[in-house]
Amino acid sequence: MADSQWNAEKSSELYGLGRWGSPYFFINILGHVSVRPRGRQGECIDLVKLVNELQDRNLNLPLLIRFDNILESQLESLHTAFKRAITRYNYNGRYQGVFPVKCNQQRHVVEKLICCGRRWNFGLEAGSKAELLIALSLIENRDALLICNGYKDRRYIETAILAKRLGRRSIIVIEQIGEVQHIIDASNQLGTKPLIGIRARLSSRSTGRWRNSVGEKAKFGLSVPEILSTLKILKDANLLEELRLLHFHIGSQINDIAIVKNALQEISRIYVELHKLGAPMGYLNVGGGLGVDYDGSKTATVASTNYSLQNYANDVVATIKEECDSQLVDVPTLISESGRAIASHFSVLIFNILRVGNLPEAIPSEGENEPLVIHNLRNTLRDIQILPYETDFNINKLQEAWNDALKFKDDALDAFRLGYLSLTDRSLSEQLTWACARLIHERLSTKNDLPKDLQDLSSVLSNSYYANLSIFRSAPDTWAIQQLFPLMPLQRLQEKPSELGHFVDLTCDSDGQINRFISNGQSKPLLELHKFNPNEPYLIGMFLGGAYQEAMGNLHNLFGTTDVIHIRMISGNNYQISHVIKGDTNADVLQAMGHDPEQLIERLRIASEQSIRDNKLDILSAQRLMNHLASSMRQSTYLESKNS
Ligand SMILES: *Cc1c(COP(=O)(O)O)cnc(C)c1O
């Protein structure tokens, strides 16, 4: 199996690991993916070994592993980048970030961020009432900010105002013109003035998936005329003094730094003008959008960004400083709501492959009196076999052969339908067609610029790797918005992956598959994978999925949450499992749909008693059935793997 020409570096290059995974992920000497949760100098854990050790503790695949040190590292990188930029440009102000809770609302994640963000007074951003409840109760640091975004009703606004009396630094950001009057009424009634912000609807162009977050028709924010009328209304209500913050958010995963710069120029101009119009201001909130380089190509393409974190921080700081300096306005405290950039890297989803489905490989030997179509297919196969290898062979000949094979296969199908061909002969025709396909594909493997039909051969021949996973639960963005996440095998990386495949999940839905993969600035329909050996676990990791996937995931086919584990490094390459969150059991998902598991089981008990009385079921088998039902209720919704 081992190919002496292949090695770990080649795998790293092939899957792009060195580009998107650095500094956290690399391939170790065993050919396994290994993680260095504390970054370059830190200790490492072999992911394959880790999964084995977790399985020994009765945790089941698929597993979502969160590396808390990576979360902390990412948070630290963000603050370091802004600190450097502030020093470099002599910015006479500071940076104070918040985490947009919608990115990952999980309790242990938010708590961890609050805890390790304390030294920077890192705060939270809420976009709904439920998120506000999380933010309100978890931030106890009086210096951390609590940014109240999202659409608000009177109760949301009153809660945010009263939070100020609890000692929370809550700032209510006006997203819609209608919220202004609510704020005025609530503040009069409660006798407390809130800190107020305005979200501006920028006209700067954006690109990518979330481009509709800007422009005249955008769903969020106030247009310039609305901002000016808000200023007047606030002034009349004696609240202009409380207008402290200006905010924009032009969509997530901004791929091109030019877009960021444009928006920053526009927002800085508005900031300075608001100041001149008498608003005290003091905070500029540049929203989210800081991108993640999912494929590591450093390009302005969908799965990448053409800028680094440092470039981003530099541009924010420099653009705002330049405008404020030129207008003699004090520079604001800078806020960003960077969610994706903080929360993507720390979680790794690991799933196992159950089996591989592919087209038949065997070439059936010739029988007597085979029908004409079968005979024709055999001749076609022979024609391909006798084409000379070395000489500059004729692609046209191969194309012709492939067209013939497809034609004969169709003929065979017609003949079968009309009753002239047996099921056995139909099977022969399919086997021979795929034998032709494989042979042609083999001949062409070194050629580029193939005609379309022949290019498609590799997807025709590709393998379906059946994954113990629901993409609707664990990687919903791959389905909903064609997002690309890096995926790769976790083992056998010193061995050349000889197959091409895509992943199909457990759901009974043809959409339940992953068939787009990162490819250095582009995407490809198939991933290089190893030949599956049913006797040996084959683990696949999906990386950089820590943002958004968990809350967006759904219960399609009633596949529930996976087991989740938090890992924290302790000295000497040791780790500590700081939290285990067991995944949904079948009872949990049934309850989510309004079923009562006990009642379901009771109905089946009654049915089985009836069958016992009718002599259709013996007591032992009935008991076996009842045991299965009871255990299923307590167990995970995924398939149990052999080695666990
Ligand atoms: C979603 C959202 C964010 C987070 O964006 P990222 O690109 O994940 O950093 C920040 N602010 C607002 C208003 C949002 O809606």
List the helices and strands and how they pair.
Blueprint: H1 8-15, H2 17-20, E1 25-27, E2 33-35, E3 45-46, H3 47-56, E4 63-67, H4 68-88, E5 98-100, H5 107-117, E6 123-126, H6 129-138, E7 145-148, H7 154-165, E8 169-174, H8 179-190, E9 195-199, H9 224-236, E10 243-247, H10 257-276, E11 283-285, H11 309-326, E12 333-335, H12 340-343, E13 347-357, H13 372-386, H14 395-417, H15 423-444, H16 452-455, H17 457-460, E14 463-467, H18 471-474, H19 476-480, E15 487-489, E16 499-504, E17 513-514, E18 517-519, E19 522-524, E20 527-529, E21 539-542, H20 549-552, E22 563-570, E23 574-581, H21 586-592, H22 597-613, H23 619-634
Parallel strand pairs: 4-22, 5-6, 6-7, 7-8, 8-9, 9-10, 10-11, 11-12, 14-16
Antiparallel strand pairs: 1-2, 2-3, 4-13, 13-14, 13-21, 15-21, 16-17, 16-20, 18-19, 22-23
The protein binds pyridoxal-5'-phosphate.
Describe the structure.
Strand 5, helix 5 and strand 6 form a beta-alpha-beta unit. This protein folds into four domains: 279 residues, Alpha-Beta Barrel (TIM Barrel); 131 residues, Lyase, Ornithine Decarboxylase, Chain A, domain 1 (Beta Barrel), CATH 2.40.37; 88 residues, Methane Monooxygenase Hydroxylase, Chain G, domain 1 (Up-down Bundle); 37 residues. Strands 4, 13, 14, 15, 16, 17, 20, 21, 22 and 23 form a ten-stranded mixed beta sheet that branches. Strands 5-6-7-8-9-10-11-12 form an eight-stranded parallel beta sheet. A three-stranded antiparallel beta sheet has the order 1-2-3. With 644 residues, it is an alpha/beta fold. Helix 10 runs parallel beside helix 11 and helix 13 runs parallel beside helix 15. The chain has 23 helices and 23 strands. The chain binds pyridoxal-5'-phosphate. Pyridoxal-5'-phosphate (PLP) binds next to loops. The site of pyridoxal-5'-phosphate has 17 residues, from loops.
